[in-house]
Amino acid sequence: MMNSFLRTGGLAVALFACASLFAATHTERFTRDFPLGIGGSLWIENPVGDVEVIGVEGSTLSVSVTKNVNAPDATSLGEGREQTQVYMGGDGKAFVVRTVVGAPPGAKWKSNVSYSIRVPRVAQVHIVAAVGERIRVAGISSAVTVKNFSADITLENIAGAVTVDTTNGDIHFITDARPAAAVQLSTINGGIEVQVNPDSNLDWIAQSISGDVRTNFPVKGRFSGNGFRGLVNGIGGPTIATTAVMGNIFMLKRGGRQDEIKSLRAVIENSGGPTIFKKTAIETPLVQGNFIYPASADIVSFNIGEIRGFANIATAAGQVNLGTVMGDVTVRSGGGPFDFGAVFGVINAHTDAGEVNVGNAYKGGEISTSGGTLQVTFSGGPLTLQNGGGDIVVRHAASSVSAETRSGDLSITLDPNSRSQRITAKTTKGNVFLAVGQRFGADVEATVLTSNDEANPIHADFNGLTIKRDQFNGKTRIRATGKIGGGGEKVELYSEEGEIRITQR
Amino acid sequence: MAECSAMRESFPLLLTESLDARSRELTHQHIESCSECGAEWLATKETWRLMEALPELTPPPRMRQRFLAEIGVEEKPVESNILSFPKRTWARWLSQAAAVVIVAGGSYLYGHRTQPVRLAPQQATLNSIQPVSIAESRVVKSSALSPNIEGRPDIENVQFIDTNPNDDEVSLSFDITQHMTVTGNRSDKSMVQLMAYVMQNEDKAQPSTTRAIDIVKQTYANSHQPEPEIAGAVARVLRNDEHEGVRIKAVDTLKTLPTATSETREALIAALKNDPNPAVRIKAVDALAKIAASGQLDQAAVDTLRQKAMQDDENLYVRTKAAEALKKLNP
Amino acid sequence: MNHLSDQELMRIVQAGDLSPASEIYDRYSGRIYNFAFRFLKNAEAAEDAVQEVFVKMIKYANQFHGDAKLSTWLFSITANWCRDYLRKADNKSKETEDVLISLPAPLEHGPDRALEQREDELRVQRALQALTPEQREAILLSRYQGLSYAEIAQIAGCSEGAVKTRVFRAMETLKKALTTETRGGDRWLNAVQ
Ligand SMILES: [Zn+2]
């Protein structure tokens, strides 16, 4: 029941079942006993498979091994058995159990090794197990460390210091006692559940950028940014640090009541305090009126088919995909790409990181990204584009364009029927391409600053441009000026270390 | 009280030991006799100590290159397996190349008279304005060229020609003393070296690095055969180029190249860790995720992604992307 | 070249030979980068600052007087550049976003030592950003660059007395930000009782 908030690790089961549909499977089982002295440590390395370690009285280490090999044919089955080896060894102080899989690239066989180990409860236990369904350690009175990529990890009644790092696994830390040693649990994509004696005193740290933090303990503490730190019950307990970057964190009384579990995030929000980041997605095919999502510290992604009014969005991070917007679009994002289909109002959009893709910007607007490609298919109004790094492409501009990038290529194609438009395009590193129609007229000023003094970087499908060269800041500056098509609005193009090309089509 | 505030203004000077002996003595005496100032002094000392927490940052090496390039000071080139040769003029390089051609290709200088001489197609995209007469042009098979580029020749007017995208045959044409076109298989050693050269020697080769990367991407993206030289050259651009637009292109290209060398992986890891531009970091996440997903779990890549996902002061979108990339790795 | 003094290197540059540029860069780029980064809290801007400071150093080498300290001169250029940068209003928004965790006092060598260090770093960084640019400049030069008040006065273009006041005020603000948070904080809340 506690598991409802955690994703289940059913993936490995599914894979296993598929592979064994037509395949030959070979399973070996064996058990070995060894002596392990007081203060000894057990090291387990297992790249693929489950691990169970249970603390027992006495000084005997007992290792049960289950080795599975799946293969489509007998030859590769043999190879798999050969290449999947279990090594055990050590002295009375330190003992190592290690799976070595020598799978060549493209091997047809797959193998995994599961361990069920009884170890003297006073031993230290260190597990490095990359991928598996389950890791369980129980009844150890000394330190336990687990390093893992993905598995459901359960630690029960561990009295020593605990460190668990997993990338995609869930972590359950459960004990009937009051913890006395430091505990550090961290996962990127999984969740964390802690269940301890209801009388425990703990110094609790919880960090998550998109999950919730919930408890049925009395706690006192504060949020700052995306972290919570506070006391569980009262002072005097060990530190328990829980980090679940994308998942939820639960701090619960062992045997406590579920209906007492409260969301700290909700409490904070109700008291007007700071909020922690919470990742949400807003998806809807249609918004009848205006769509307003006010400035928030949340990571929110938007996927909206159509907005009949205007859109006003601010998000800490996340992608913003808007299909059709009838009114203006104002968007600020702390990071994440934008994709707008058709905007009938004016666009004013900025992202701190990511690509921007706009289909039709019927009234133009101002669009900027701190880095990433910026692309507009059609613009019908004055357009100002700024890029902190990356290309800018405008495929069909029927109005003026001002575009600037710190580095990257600029490519602007004007409406073929346009007679004249003001164009400014500037890159401090890269090329500038401008395509104009047959009837286009302008006063052109194209400048290239280059360290190549023999370069001939300005090309135009027109006569009438005068080219001058001079030295500027230790570089060669080439300027082409003049009227094309009888003159008109000003077209200013600037490139450093690149070329400028004006073509007529 | 006035005395107290004057004393407290001297606390920072006491900490940097820049008070003269008399003032120092006076201040210490006051601290001992006035309990409020005593407490303030302790708090000031503690604050001064806490400020130690700021780490000392090392400026990225590309900044040094950017500065020296700007003022035109040339340093001995950093080790590079392609171009560690002393600078020579292009004319000497050409004669060298021609000499190699004679040896390796049988008799190129004679042979070309009987072979059809191809003119670079004019629809090529760069600087193809000067007409090139047949007498000035040479077409060389890349297999007949030495894969080692001697010196740092000035080459201009570089054009990339891929007449049939369905085969592996590509051509690269450029001006040295005369217009030269090298044609050959894209995986031919000489072709690879030439491409890598053009990409990394913007000051010597006419197309910009960005354009050169585009050419490389077009030629080698999703090809079956890995070209570690090319990947290495792109990785070096990613590491060293001061322009984020160029680095964005480099990281994009690395993602499309068929296999990752350790150099590529390290360059991507370095970019994800240190690149100041968030777009480069986002793309580095994608590229690393792709590498990490191919074949065995790549521990260094996974560790860097993990570290990014956990990093408090990283852009939230980058953190989320790193976490999502790790999630997809679930085997 | 590394046995020559700053002044001697600059004399070579003033004579038109730029070969000492890399040596001078190596001596000071780290300090300038750290100063600019802490002042602006923006890595890209700090890179630009270093670039422009050293280019200016070469360009205006003749304005450097042999009896001055090169570090003072370079920090003057840097501080000027940084002030200009902040004056451009649109740069304000480019400050790296803080995601700060303020927590009570660390346990001695607890398992979350690295986390604590990281938190301390963020706290100091945020506290510095809360200062006025004048105060920040003064405290950075005094605390992290070890410059005297006389040198800072020269860089900031103010009196030594003003530097004294700025550093003092800065310390008062930092003290509040850094020591009260560790003592328990101002906004404790009773989440679930
Ligand atoms: Zn006093």
Helix and strand string of chain B, N-terminal first?
HHHHHHHEEEEHHHHHHHH
CATH fold-level name of the largest domain in chain B: Leucine-rich Repeat Variant
**Greatest interface and its residue counts?**
A-B, 64 and 45 residues
What's the architecture of the largest domain in chain C, going by CATH? Orthogonal Bundle
Q: Bin the strand percentage of chain C.
A: under 5%
Query: By helix and strand content of chain B, what is the structural category?
Result: alpha+beta
The first-to-last residue Cα distance of chain C is: 69 Å
Shape of chain B: elongated
Rg of chain C (CA only): 20 Å
Q: How many DSSP helices of chain B?
A: 15
CATH homologous group name of the largest domain in chain C: RNA polymerase sigma factor, region 2, helix turn helix motif
Topology as H/E string of chain C?
Answer: HHHHHHHHE
Average pLDDT for all residues of chain B: 70
> Which small-molecule ligands are present, each listed once?
zinc ion
Q: What strand line-up does the widest sheet of chain B have?
A: 1-4-3-2
Low-confidence stretches of chain B: 77-136
Helix residue percentage of chain B: 40-55%
Within CATH, the superfamily of the largest domain in chain B carries the name Leucine-rich Repeat Variant
Low-confidence stretches of chain C: 91-113, 181-193
Oligomeric grouping of the chains: heterotrimer
List the keywords.
heterotrimer, A: about 500 residues, mainly beta, 20-stranded mixed β-sheet, twelve-stranded mixed β-sheet, 3 helices, disordered N terminus, C: about 190 residues, mainly alpha, Rna Polymerase Sigma Factor, Chain: A, Arc Repressor Mutant, subunit A, 2 domains, about 0% strand, disordered C terminus, binds zinc ion
Explain what you see.
The complex is a heterotrimer of chains A (505), B (331) and C (193). Chain A has three helices and 43 strands. Chain A has 505 residues and is mostly beta strands. Among the domains of chain A are: 1-125, no CATH class; 279-504, no CATH class. In chain A, the strands form three sheets. Chain A has a 20-stranded mixed β-sheet that branches. With 331 residues, chain B is an alpha+beta fold. Chain B has helices spanning 2-9, 11-15, 21-33, 35-50, 61-70, 90-105, 108-114, 189-200, 209-220, 228-240, 244-256, 262-274, 278-293, 299-310, 316-328; strands at residues 137-141, 156-161, 169-175, 179-185. Chain B has a four-stranded mixed β-sheet with strand order 1-4-3-2, covered by helices on one side. Chain B is elongated. Chain B starts with a helix and ends with a helix. Chain C has 193 residues and is mainly alpha-helical. Chain C folds into two domains: 1-99, Orthogonal Bundle (Rna Polymerase Sigma Factor, Chain: A), CATH 1.10.1740.10; 102-193, Winged helix-like DNA-binding domain superfamily/Winged helix DNA-binding domain (Arc Repressor Mutant, subunit A). Chain C contains eight helices and one strand. Chain C is globular, with a radius of gyration of 20 Å. Chain C starts with 5 loop residues before the first helix and ends with a strand. Mean pLDDT of chain C is 77; it is low at 91-113 and 181-193. Classes of the chains: A mainly beta (505), B alpha+beta (331), C mainly alpha (193). Chains B and C meet through helix 2, helix 4 and helix 5 of B and helix 2, helix 3, helix 5, helix 6 and helix 8 of C.
